[in-house]
Design goal:
Elements lengths: L5 E6 L7 H14 L4 E6 L1 H8 L3 H18 L7 E4 L4 H10 L5 H5 L2 H9 L9 H14 L5 E4 L4 H19 L21 E4 L34 H9 L22 H9 L3 H12 L5 H27 L2 H29 L14
Parallel strand pairs: 1-2, 2-3, 4-5
Bound molecules: tryptophan.
């Protein structure tokens, strides 16, 4: 049997998944589950970069993320879901990779700089904060995956991963630096130069008003503008009925704004409503003051319930059985260790640091 190509991706357990995660990456993971051997990582160590003082919360978030994944339809019989901190090879690779990349290069990573700004970390962030970016290279390369499905904000981390892989392959596997990215493995490299796979929607907006510059904000738990995959029908209704639309529209007969960059109601329809003819027809009516917000919102609620109902159903199976979730993570983590240990052994061999052999075991 020919092994399927691998996928590696993951989430930092910062809370429950929302619709932005769904269209940004989760949808891709579901679609690729059959053709690829999928590894989905819960980056619990990364959660400690900003929440080292809240271990209970991180523990709960790990279970929440795993439950969300099962609820959306990640099939543990096909895909391995695993916990980062239980795969020691990742940490060991992180240390070696940290030698291959200049510190200043890590600090130029725009996702890190943005995070420092957004979370107001100033110069108070821990040493482990920039290190997580190098750790992410190891999360990925430990699996030597072909594809890495992520949201757009992760691209700088993936670029760093590509740089680390090239450097390693050149230094320790004798790959010619002039090789094309696709040829690295053929030329004897251990690590493939991985490719990102972006979601259908790059940046889903939230349900709230725009910022001072008039730009709608990205959906995010911390901005309080998110629709969670775990919201029940009532919560969904409240959020959609109360969402920001066109503030200039006082009466139904006033012309309405349908630009999805300005009115999230239309951004949501364009993202989730598959009935293009319905959208075209009602957009026209909205523009011409022939239909009110309420009707468009009601339709959106129906559309979202069709997406979320099966997720809610599946969630019921797991919500009150955290032990089942742990069992699934244990099995997935064992599979992840098998691959990551193999990669680490090959890496050490390439680095001439293969002194002994060893095995890692996950015990019940
Ligand atoms: N940094 C990612 C996030 O915050 C999570 C993550 C950690 C990840 N390691 C990864 C994503 C490896 C893809 C591949 O969502």
């Amino acid at each position: 049997m020919i092994a399927k190509p691998r996928i590696l991706t993951g989430d930092t357990p910062t809370g429950k998944l929302h619709l932005g995660h769904y269209v940004g990456s989760v949808e891709n993971r579901l679609a690729l589950q059959d053709q690829y051997d999928c590894f989905f990582l819960i980056a619990n160590k990364h959660a400690f970069t900003t929440r080292a003082d809240r271990p209970d919360e991180i523990r709960q978030s790990v279970i929440d993320i795993a439950t969300d994944w099962l609820a959306v339809g990640i099939d543990p019989g096909k895909s391995a879901m695993f916990i980062q901190s239980e795969v020691p090879a990742i940490d060991e690779l992180t240390f070696f990779f940290a030698m291959l990349i200049p510190f200043n290069r890590v600090m130029r990573n725009p996702t890190l700089t943005q995070e420092i700004k957004d979370k107001d970390l100033g110069d108070k962030y821990p040493f482990g904060f920039p290190m997580y970016a190098v750790g992410q290279c190891a999360d990925i390369l430990a699996f030597r995956p072909q594809l890495v499905p992520v949201g757009e904000d992760q691209l700088p981390h993936l670029e760093l991963t590509r740089e680390v892989a090239r450097k390693f392959d050149q230094l320790y596997c004798g790959v010619n630096p002039h090789s094309q990215d696709n040829d690295y493995v053929k030329a004897g490299g251990l690590f493939p130069i991985i490719e990102p796979k972006l979601g259908r929607v790059k940046r889903l907006v939230g349900t709230g008003a725009p910022d001072a510059e008039g730009r709608l904000l990205k959906m995010s738990k911390s901005l309080n503008n998110a629709v969670f995959l775990s919201d029940d029908a009532d919560a969904l209704k409240t959020k959609i009925m109360g969402m920001y639309t066109d503030p200039k529209r006082i009466r139904v007969t006033d012309p309405g704004e349908t630009d999805p960059e300005k009115n999230p109601l239309w951004a949501f329809h364009e993202t989730f409503n598959t009935d293009v003819a319905w959208i075209d027809e009602h957009r026209e009516m909205y523009t011409n003051g022939k239909i009110g917000d309420v009707a468009i919102k009601k339709k959106l609620i129906d559309v979202l319930n069709i997406l979320l109902d099966p997720i809610r159903q599946r969630r019921k199976q797991y919500a009150d059985r955290p032990d089942d979730v742990i069992d699934i993570l244990r099995a997935g983590t064992a599979r992840a260790n098998a691959i990551a240990e193999e990669t680490l052994a090959l890496a050490k061999k390439a680095m001439r640091q293969d002194y002994f052999s060893r095995s890692v075991a996950i015990i019940r």
